[in-house]
Design a protein that fits this description.
- The longest helix has 18 residues.
- Strands 1-2-3-4-6-9 form a six-stranded mixed sheet, with helices on both faces. A three-stranded mixed sheet has the order 5-7-8.
- The chain contains twelve helices and nine strands.
- A hairpin with a 2-residue loop joins strand 1 and strand 2.
Length: 268
């Protein structure tokens, strides 16, 4: 399966890793519709591509992502859009990317440096793991621009950090560092800028070598469990256990346990 690059987004598969790199440094990697469409397409495709075991989302340039490129997305026509154009557009653009990231059973790692705001912030939130430079800057710009949050901000943040801190970010527009984001439990880890690539590579490698079926089903259980009562969730756990215990990686894991050695999972 081929993953094509588009203007503003580099896509490349190397072994089990699909790497998506935001590449509009002159616009602080603000995401336009072309980039959004490609990210949605690639992440959805990777979910059914057995050759991909981990996805990395990172950046070219000093900043991760300044959010959605509103100027580019709103300048495609000289005519004023009809009332409701935003409501019609978002479900197929920014508001589609976040569910695709959450629903795919391939683990996603976001690597953040510099500024990340709005949609960029939410991409980091929707990733399974986010490793950031300690001096990275996370910001929700909505109140400063006079409009309301999008792309899942008011759904993702309370589930991670509760309502009090969510209000600080969304309603007061508080900027926080990568170190604070890790301290609050928003992201997986913050490290000094000079250690960021090494920390990201180690995490990507660990996930790429993990039992892929069990990893994906665990991600599904964590996501689907948000809206279920305990009985239904336990039914899902039983089904996931049934599926994962039929995988080749399960047999390898049990053999490694008996033989007192490290398992060598193949992602099957």
């Amino acid at each position: 399966m081929k993953y094509r690059s588009v203007p503003g987004l580099q896509a490349a598969q190397r072994g089990v890793l699909l790497r998506l790199t935001l590449d509009r440094a002159d616009r602080r990697n603000a995401v336009d519709d072309t980039m959004l469409d490609a990210m949605i397409e690639h992440i959805a495709a990777a979910g059914t591509d057995e050759s991909v075991r981990v996805i990395r989302v990172d950046t070219a340039g000093p900043d991760f992502c300044a959010g959605s490129d509103l100027i580019a997305n709103n300048s495609k026509s000289d005519r004023k859009p009809r009332v409701g154009s935003t409501q019609r557009r978002l479900p197929n653009k920014a508001n589609r990317l976040i569910p695709v990231m959450l629903e795919t059973q391939v683990p996603i790692v976001a690597v953040v440096r510099g500024w990340t705001a709005g949609l960029g912030f939410h991409i980091a939130l929707a990733a399974d793991f986010c490793v950031a430079a300690a001096d990275a800057r996370f910001w929700e710009p909505f109140m400063a621009r006079g409009f309301t949050p999008d792309s899942g901000a008011a759904w993702l943040l309370p589930r991670l950090i509760g309502m009090v801190r969510t209000r600080q970010l969304l309603m007061l527009g508080q900027e926080i560092s990568g170190a604070t984001a890790a301290d609050w439990g928003i992201i997986h880890r913050a490290v000094p800028e000079g250690q960021l690539e090494c920390a990201a590579d180690e995490l990507v490698s660990q996930l790429g070598d993990a039992p892929t079926v069990a990893l994906g089903l665990t991600k599904w259980l964590l996501q689907s469990g948000n809206g279920l009562d305990l009985d239904r969730h336990l039914q899902n756990e039983a089904m996931a256990l049934e599926l994962s215990s039929r995988s080749e990686d399960f047999r390898e894991g049990m053999a490694a346990f008996r033989e007192k050695r490290d398992a060598k999972f193949q992602g099957r």
